[in-house]
Amino acid sequence: MNTVLEKIGVMKLVPAVILQKAEDASPLADALVKGGLPCAEITFRTAAAAEAINIMAKRGDLLVGAGTVLSVDQVKQAVDNGATYIVAPGFSEKVVGYCVSENITIIPGVSTATEITSALEAGLDVVKFFPADACGGLKALKALSGPFPMMKFIPTGGIDSVNMIEYLKFPKVMACGGSWMVKSDLIKEKKFDEIQRITHQAVTIAGTIKH
Predict the structure, then answer these.
(1) I need a surface site. Which of 13, 43, 210, 211 has the fewest CB within 10 A?
(2) Model confidence, pTM
(3) Which fold is adopted by the domain 3-108+160-205?
(4) Catalytic residue from among 12, 128, 152, 172
(5) 19 — phi, psi (to 5°)?
């Protein structure tokens, strides 16, 4: 496992961020760092994503990744702007193949044994279980992970401050991803103090869970 993934494993949480305005990147980064979670996955769902990644990456005090990456071109754009890891909603052979060949940390989304097998064949040992809640939650993840003892998972999708506890207690779960700490309406309303509070609360809870 590389150093980027090791850092995510230590933090146990990956906030998935949708930013409509790049100007919100800096105060959001402040809130996450002050909340004890120097990590952000900026999703490529808006035109502001690349600039936001650039702003956060230049700070030097956050682990900044790009999420909802669907193409090799988006990988290149994200990395050019300072992203240190890539998260995809599904398993794309082109995207995974390119990242592996370029030594770029890639966490593809999986929800089936076939996709997990493909990830293993690509040399990966961490994948995103997505959409976690809609795919059967922890019960489904436990069943899926059984045949793959070497694989670690980052469940994402429907994760919140309550169910993250049970996910994190499962040894195969390296971290939980989600947007409950960085909800779009809180960002839009510039309630960064509230984001800091929620983040700190989540970090505190995650820190109590030991495998």
Answers:
(1) 210
(2) 0.97
(3) TIM Barrel (3.20.20)
(4) 128
(5) -110, 125
